[in-house]
Amino acid sequence: MQEKSPKTILQDNAITSARYEMSALEKNIIYIMMAQLKKEDRADVIYYVSVRELMDRTGTRNSYEDLKRATETLIGRVLQIKRPNGNLLQVSMISSAEYLHGQGIIEIGLDPKIRPFFFDLKQNFTAFQLHMALSLDSKYAKRIYEMLSQYKDMGMFKIELMELKRRLLLYDEKTGEEQYKNWSDFEKRILLTAKKEINEKTDLTIDYKATKVGRKFSDIIFSIKISKGTQVKIDFRDDSAAVFGRLVNEFRLRKDQAILVVERFSLQEINKALYDIRLKMSGNEVKNLGAYTAKVFGLL
């Protein structure tokens, strides 16, 4: 039997190089959502994040209030993306978040303005492993890992120090406010932390050196090597939230019906039934998909 490859997120370079800030928890919610994205998704598709899956995959424990604050903040997070034509796009990646009462599931709406950056990848994109991104604790390590993953085949990545700070929102050009002005503080709190986590937990082994103009540090040059033996088998298809999403998005059940299916049946039973329904559909034996799916699961 052929082994399943690890789930890979494809992320447009414009997002990788955008200037924004997210907490580690916010980033993890985005990662779980991104794992469900498909090119064929309709513009109005809703994605579902399982709170249990989120905590299990990250080894963290978050309260309802933690999650509510994270999604509330995410809706207000603005990504600033420079278009090739010179335009500046300011957009939030999430347009809405709804908590399904008693289900441990968060319903996530994706802003249509950001959707093309994930699906119209063309030639330029960043690929990185979801489980590795989730394993990183520092929000800055997560961002730097994304940036370096974009250049891992080249083996190096050079960036101006101030541009890195801009991307991490450690420097505001409008106000001139800069965090970690002292190089030793920046290196200790950002670079060394990111290097340690990335080298220990991901498929990359990285190092860096800083160059100066006069007495002032100006650029950072990262060296990047792809580590061997770091691939981990992982499957996101059998999580209850992902199955719930399939029932609603693909098989046209109402949310209350999907909740009953997830409560009454095992994931194995659900997946087998959905496979059988797909076969019936391919033979043009199903006229009303939602009604037929509800009938299969004894809801009508």
Automatic annotation (TrEMBL):
Membrane-traversing stretches: none
What does the sequence similarity comment in the record state about its family? Belongs to the initiator RepB protein family.
Species of the source: Runella slithyformis (strain ATCC 29530 / DSM 19594 / LMG 11500 / NCIMB 11436 / LSU 4)
In terms of Pfam families, this protein maps to: Rep3_C, Rep3_N
Domain Initiator Rep protein WH1 as annotated: residue spans: 9-149
Q: What is this protein called?
A: Initiator RepB protein
Q: Which InterPro entries match?
A: Initiator_Rep_WH1, WH-like_DNA-bd_sf, WH_DNA-bd_sf
GO MF entries: DNA-directed DNA polymerase activity
Keywords from UniProt, A to Z, are:
Plasmid
**A biological process term (GO) from this entry:** DNA replication initiation
Q: Which intervals of the chain form a coiled coil?
A: none
